[in-house]
Design goal:
Order of helices and strands: HHHHH
Oligomer: single chain
Largest sheet: none
Helix content: 55-70%
Radius of gyration: 17 Å
Structural class: mainly alpha
Shape: globular
Number of helices: 5
């Protein structure tokens, strides 16, 4: 359990740092069309959800692989599948954290009447922390293991939506660029 906690802390740090850098990659790439599929192309809430989704997906793939392969831990006596529910828990964490971003954002802006950069940052960090707390809890409880296929399908569908809606967003609020 100690290793799992450490992996969650590392994940929070990884997704927070990489997700923050993720915000700027599209601009750094010279607004490369392909890069835009994975990195925010504008300031809409939807595009900011990519900052958690893709970095956490990468970390979750690493975490799942690490959990299944003893050489990642440096110990050949590590039990295979020490945490058999880590994949389903990670998938749930990715979805939960990603969709907490608009929940937190629209809640606080609805109360305060506008957005604040400090609260936007807190929204992102809070969503990352909650996502990894969910991963930790469901990894230990295994309550989502039977839903792994559904969770995989939901993550895949979300990824497809990110790809599709990057350049063809529906005409609804979450896809709108805020007026400054």
């Amino acid at each position: 359990m100690k290793n799992l906690k450490l992996d969650m802390i590392k994940g929070i740090i990884f997704v927070s740092v990489i997700g923050t850098l993720w915000h700027f990659v599209y601009e750094w790439s010279g607004q490369n069309f392909i890069v835009g599929f994975f990195f925010p192309v504008n300031e809409s809430t939807w595009e900011h959800m990519k900052m958690l989704f893709f970095p956490m997906l990468l970390y979750s793939l690493y975490l799942n692989k690490k959990q299944r392969m003893p050489f990642f831990t440096g110990h050949s006596n590590v039990k295979k599948d020490a945490f058999p529910c880590i994949l389903s828990a990670s998938l749930c964490g990715i979805l939960s954290g990603t969709f907490l971003i608009p929940v937190f954002f629209y809640t606080y802006t609805g109360i305060l009447g506008r957005d604040y950069i400090a609260l936007d940052i807190a929204t992102f960090i809070g969503s990352v922390i909650m996502a990894f707390w969910i991963v930790y809890r469901f990894t230990l409880s295994c309550k989502l293991h039977s839903l792994q296929f559904v969770l995989k399908a939901a993550v895949f569908a979300t990824a497809i939506c990110f790809l599709l809606f990057t350049y063809y967003p529906p005409d609804i609020g979450i896809f709108a660029v805020p007026i400054q």
